[in-house]
Amino acid sequence: MSxxxxxxxxxxxxxxxxxSKIDREITDKVNSDAGAVRGASQTKKNLFAIADQExxxxxxxxxxxxxxxxxxxxxxxxxxxxxxx
Length: 85
Description:
elongated, 3 helices, two-stranded antiparallel sheet
């Protein structure tokens, strides 16, 4: 069995949860206090604000993205893909 006969195409998507949530109650209060129309601004809660986890997550994501890229990419030969030559 050759590599070309047993190859599998994969797609790897790595993303980071933003860890924020729109605080509708505070948003409405801020808009009201400022005399602004509804929808003029948004106030977001940082759900990592009381934890030291945000820095860990932000450092972990690029490392995993790099590992995934290294493990899923292979050199493409011109023989296998003549259009690239």
